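A further point concerns the way the authors explain their paired sequence and structure data. An entry of this sort, consisting of the sequence and the corresponding backbone structure tokens, reads as follows:
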Amino acid sequence: MTFQDIDDQKRKEELKARIEIPIQIRDLRFIRVAHKDKIPIDKDWQNTANYAADDPIIQNHVKSQGNYGVKCGGGWIVIDGDTKEIQDKAKVLPKTFAVATSMKADGNRGMHYYYKCPGLDKKIILYHPTEKDEKGNPRHLGEIQTDGQQVIGPTCIHKSGIRYDVVENAPIADVSKEEVIKAFSEYIERPYVQLPEETGETFSILKVVDTSKLKKRGDEWYGAHPVHGSETGQNFWVNERKNAWHCFRCNTGGGPLSLIAVQEKILECKDVQKGVLCGDVWKKSVELGRKYGYIAGRKEDILVFEPHSAKQISETEYGPIEWLVDGMFPLGGTSILAGRSGAYKSWVLLLLAKCVARGEKFMGEFAVTKSNVLVLDQEMGEQLIKQRLQKLGAEDLENLFVASRTRLNFNDDKWCDLMSKFMKEHDITVIIADPFRRTHNIDEDSANEVSPFLTYQLEPFLKRNNCTLLMVHHYKKVQGGDKFQDDEQSLVRGSSEWGNYPHAIISLKKVRSIGEEEVKKIILTQLKNRTGIVDENPKLIEIKEEDGKMVFTWCGNAPEKISMEGAFLKEFEDYLVGQNLTEMKRVEIIEEFGTPTGRFSKSTITSGLARGVVDGNLSKPRKGFYGLASKGQQININKFVEEVI
């Protein structure tokens, strides 16, 4: 008998028993899977490409011996027990519909246990608490499959030829979330995470919780929840090393202050989430926290080093990116608005502050996350700020705050504490620092000072306060061709760390005006967007004063126009060719083309020469001299469509 004959015989045996959907699970939704496979055929199976049991699409599919998946979620869970440990724990739960799956490495078959469990909606991965696999990772035991997951259905065929056999032909049992958690708690990895407002909290959580009512296992304490109790007696867990708690009933948790808020009934357990510890909630929690010995103040970071595997990262649901200004400035972290003097940077960020505080679209185009805003004005003073607020129509806002010309210093713990206190009392989640260089005392040109300041001082402050920071930053002064950089991001003044660290960088440049034009124009360009796609097309914004108000109009992509640098380089080329010259000295070039005899400024000539060298149009045959890169080569002025100063 040939191998082909054996395969044909196996196929005939498989066809003798039809693939069918048992009556116990016919109320669920089903997915098409290829014969002997486990991967769904349809890409959008989680949303649209799933079918009722009597749908002709799934019926015809299984009649042709295609496998099918059972969609979990919506109150239905499947305990996927690959190992004897999980199968033994499942015996304490009510008897239910159960299916034997494929053969595992230990010689036993895996199991699928089906339950109705409305309270469980997130997948749980089960690991052995002490044993490791061959790679040194916690030994995987199984999963509890819920929303967004699917399992191969009964009577389907594994790639090994083994069928998924019904071994317990019972109705699907009802079970509570707490019963499931209690049964498998030994193998559940608890997600201990402090709220962003509590990050770095060193006040011991054991001073908040009554450990006499809890049981201890290693670094963990567990028992009934101190407020809403527990059906099983172990829905509440505390990890003293991570200084955090978790409630399995509500799927919430945090650090010491959030637990104080729950125990003192300032917050309900189910409402604990990012951003909730602010305003009156924060003030009441701190006030009532005194009886536990809690004192509000600056907190040192707790050192935690817990790398995650690629699989863990892949299986984590992070949710969509949140934006302060849609597609432009992400929510959380830091962003920079950079440019030279006179580019309307302060105007634009004050306009943004107004839009965010009011919850209206930025420049009528970009959705914002409505937030309370603190502007750290380090230049203008309140009198000028008042005028600008009036011109922007922001004078009536009670959730837009301005601290003008303070001696504020982000590198000073006392100042950070004062800001944190004010921010919590007024629910501030957005700070605009204008300019940022006046809010610290470090050497901004030194990477050795900038990097630790951003990483170990500024970032923890922002995390503790659940805050987004927008920084106004200036460009470097052009000091000759050798200082010119083709990468515009590198023009941000100071160490390159200023350009490397932020999540987003936006540049503003003023369009060169001829005479006194009524409408001013600026160009906005995205230089960096770590959380989204960078739109490399420069955008034109028109600015006009009407009836005492400043009106900013978003005009979309900027029209192309030869820049002053491009115009200079074209004239320089023509001059070299016309005079039959191969090179000119920089001083002579400035004398020939610069003001007052010529029409170009010294800075335009300097940056134009440098850019010409970077782009390969010009050469530097010797120090201080410039010529065409090659004889007869013409400068492509189409590369100079930068219509700005």
